[in-house]
Design goal:
The structure holds two protein chains of two kinds. By secondary structure, chain A is an alpha/beta fold. Helices cover 42% and strands 11% of the residues of chain A. Chain A has two domains: 167 residues, Rossmann fold (3-Layer(aba) Sandwich), CATH 3.40.50; 111 residues, Rossmann fold, CATH 3.40.50.1980. In chain B, a hairpin with a 6-residue loop joins β4 and β5. Classes of the chains: A alpha/beta, B mainly beta.
Chain lengths: 301, 444
């Protein structure tokens, strides 16, 4: 037993050790929460973001590299509401890390701090891959980011009291800049009110709710089910009767279905950044909304 | 937006109440400002309360069953077309494991149904029960039933109960998540299809960027290769397994993992039957001694930008090598004769599965076993054990499957199986596998 452990430790030290300079090791499930943790934590945190804008957070393999990272995390920041149900539970049970298990302060679900939309009244798999606790893509409404920021700041303060003042002052600064940005964005999105939009997946529901746009349809026949020819044919018919102004999709979606509908119904498509890193301009949370709004306004003009 | 309107409304009301004529003096103005400020605060407070209530309402679980474990059921059924009689199935050159290694029955059949319950027990433990319900002999078996720790830190996890042993790669994967209908030949001859042990597992994950784990299992030795079905009748440890894995990402699109494991057991009266070509028992033999199995495994998964939704490819292979030595008893029931027996045998498989468009995958697998060397000492001779005569079984398998959602899969598989030295079994399987209930999470 002892020999095995000694062997393991010796072999383990042969690998590059994780950065230990920062006070808090943050494991962010999605880029938007990685970016937020970085805004709030500055140089006091080391943030590892598990997914990119080119990946669908519903479908992530529980890869060895992710287990290795969650093993040393102090704080896990995820969307929650079953978005990561196919991989996070597995990473948690394999990690041997009690700090980030459900119920401990190191486990943070962003969607718990906002009002969730689309909580299904009927829950059945025949309706597709639905989320019983509502739509998990809460970050597409900037007001939700502000709410999550407040909660995340408190959580970081609790986990790392030595740097509490730093988190508070960075949090305050971020929230002020964010509120100013929201005020600016709300003026910019005024022309989008009531504009009919076709989405790929129901991942822009909070954005649509915020801007007052109207969702006219989705390319997926049911959540999580890829577009089918028959469903696209129905959408084309529907667009002929009541055309939408724009079709949007995310970087992790194939543009094929959107372009097909676009060419048949003569409606412009827009690839939205969806999250931080989704486009070149979406470098941080501010850029994410700047670019999202600019792309939509250009398309519906 | 809404708030601005409310404040404006409040301000108008306040102005109205104060009366325009009286509002000329400085004192009145400051009173008004104060009133507006207070109203604004009340509106803010009301908003915060409403927001809080809405968040709570949207997150509150309802009903007593909110604390029930996650329940899922796996159903599967298969149509089998086999050119050789499955009752006469054997893998020549290797000791029969007396487990469920055959290709099943011909025609339509319901496979084993799985019922899985899993939940956190408290802040210290998580529990999992996976029961398999056999369609034919009306029995419920425990496939896995274990608890594992949540509250250990520094990378340690302990598992106790019955679980699929961490020997090799495929052995830990549930049959419903396999990429082919049946197990590789090597898993059939070296692990009796799939080894689930009653025991304890300790695993440690290193604090490194590159994934590294090392672990140890000790068990009773409840089935092949440690003993006859039902387990050894001995105190102490009947089987032990050591394993280690290394894994990581290569670039943005490839993930890999490789592992080594060493399963060491001391079989006691491990019986097997000599069968004739119709599958009838000729005599029974038994082995007592040592069995040591090395397994090297490797897996590589490619998906563009780690997004497997559209296309992905999976390459998986394992190499097994086993050394056994001890006493073999021939014909235990009539005139038993015991002599020495030793063998060194090996086997491997390599398989690739490619998802070329969403929902559709194709796969190919090649199996090969090497019966290696076997030696008998007097009074036994090789002629007493025709099943162990030198032979290297091979098999080619192809499959195509369609998964309309994450919860259902329909698979067509064809194989040319040369497990028997005297005939090739041409096999076709048409299979459905579905899962009901809780969303599963699959190991890498």
């Amino acid at each position: 037993m002892k020999t095995i452990l000694r062997f393991a430790v010796a072999l383990g030290s042969a690998f590059a050790a994780l950065p230990a300079a920062a006070s808090l090791n943050v494991f962010a499930c999605e880029p938007e929460w990685g970016a937020l943790a970085q805004e709030l934590g500055g140089d006091k945190v080391s943030v590892y973001t598990a997914t990119t804008a080119l990946q669908d957070a519903h479908r992530i393999e529980a890869r060895p590299s992710l287990i290795a990272r969650i093993r040393s995390a102090d704080l896990l920041v995820c969307s929650g509401s079953e978005l990561e149900i196919g991989w996070i539970p597995l990473l948690l049970t394999q990690s041997g890390n009690s700090k980030v298990q459900l119920g401990n302060p190191g486990y943070f679900e962003a969607s718990q701090y906002v009002v969730r939309l689309e909580i299904p009244k009927v829950i059945d798999r025949a309706l597709g891959d639905i989320h019983p606790s509502g739509n998990p893509h809460v970050h597409t409404d900037p007001r939700n980011i502000a709410r999550v920021a407040q909660a995340l700041e408190e959580r970081m303060t609790q986990l790392d009291p030595a740097n509490a003042d730093g988190y508070r002052s960075r949090g305050k600064s971020f929230r002020e800049r964010w509120q100013a940005a929201i005020a600016r964005w709300e003026q910019q999105v005024a022309p989008l009110k009531g504009v009919p939009i076709v989405v790929y997946h129901k991942d822009f529901s909070y954005f649509i709710n915020w801007t007052g746009m109207r969702e006219a349809g989705s390319l997926e026949p049911k959540p999580g089910i890829p577009p089918t020819p028959s469903h696209l044919a129905e959408l084309i018919d529907q667009m002929k009767r009541a055309p939408a102004k724009v079709i949007v999709y995310s970087p992790y979606n194939s543009p094929q279905a959107a372009e097909f509908l676009s060419s048949r119904a003569n409606i412009p498509t827009v690839m939205m950044p969806f999250t931080v890193g989704g486009t070149d301009r979406a470098k941080d949370l501010f850029g994410l909304f700047d670019d999202t709004i600019a792309r939509l306004l250009a398309a519906v003009k | 937006m809404e708030r601005a309107k409310l404040i404006a409304l409040a301000a108008t009301a306040a102005l109205g109440a104060a009366g325009t004529a009286a509002a000329q003096t400085q004192g009145d103005l400051s009173t008004l400002r104060e009133q507006v400020r207070q109203l604004e605060k009340r509106v803010q407070d009301a908003e915060a309360t409403a927001q809080q209530a809405a968040v709570q309402a949207s997150s509150r679980p309802t009903g007593e069953n909110a604390l029930n474990p996650a329940v899922s059921v796996i159903l599967n059924g298969v149509y089998s077309n086999l050119s050789q009689d499955p009752n006469g199935f054997r893998i020549n050159g290797f000791v029969p494991t007396m487990g469920e290694v055959g290709p099943g029955v011909r025609g339509l059949s319901l496979g084993e149904s799985e019922l899985a319950l899993a939940s956190n027990i408290d802040h210290n433990f998580r529990g999992t029960l996976i029961a398999s319900i056999s369609p034919d002999n009306n029995s419920i078996g425990v496939e896995e039933g274990y608890i594992q720790t949540l509250s250990l830190s520094n990378g340690f996890t302990i598992k106790a109960g019955r679980f699929f042993s961490g020997v090799g790669y495929q052995n830990q994967i549930h049959a419903h998540a396999w990429d082919f209908t049946d197990a590789p030949l090597a898993n059939k001859v070296f692990l009796g299809n799939q080894l689930n042990e009653d025991g304890v597992q300790l695993k440690w994950v290193a604090p490194t960027e590159t994934y590294f784990d090392v672990g140890m299992e000790v068990g009773r030795g409840r089935q092949f290769p440690a003993g006859p079905a039902g387990g050894r009748n001995k105190n102490g440890v009947g089987s032990s397994n050591l394993f280690a894995h290394v894994g990581g990402d290569l670039g943005t699109s490839i993930a890999w993992q490789t592992g080594v494991s060493y399963l060491s057991t001391s079989p006691q009266d491990r019986t097997f039957d000599n069968l004739d070509s119709n599958g009838n028992r000729v005599n029974t033999n038994s082995f007592t001694g040592n069995s040591r199995l090395w397994v090297l495994d490797g897996i590589l998964k490619w998906a563009p930008n780690q997004n497997p939704t559209y296309t992905n490819f999976k390459l998986q292979g394992e190499y097994f090598r086993r050394k056994e030595d001890g006493d073999l008893t021939f014909n235990t029931t009539v005139t038993p004769q015991t002599g020495g027996f030793a063998s060194v045998q090996s086997g491997w498989y390599l398989q690739g599965v490619y998802q070329f468009v969403p929902m559709w995958r194709v796969g190919y697998r090649y199996d090969r076993l090497n019966s290696g060397t076997t030696s008998f000492s007097s009074p036994l001779s090789a002629a007493d054990f025709p099943i162990l005569a030198a032979y290297n079984p091979t098999r080619h398998t192809v499959m195509v499957d369609w998964s309309p959602s994450e919860f259902s899969r329909i698979r067509l598989q064809a194989a040319s199986d040369k497990s028997r030295s005297d005939a090739t079994d041409h096999q076709v399987f048409l299979q459905y596998i579905v899962s009901l209930g809780a969303h599963g999470a699959h190991k890498f």
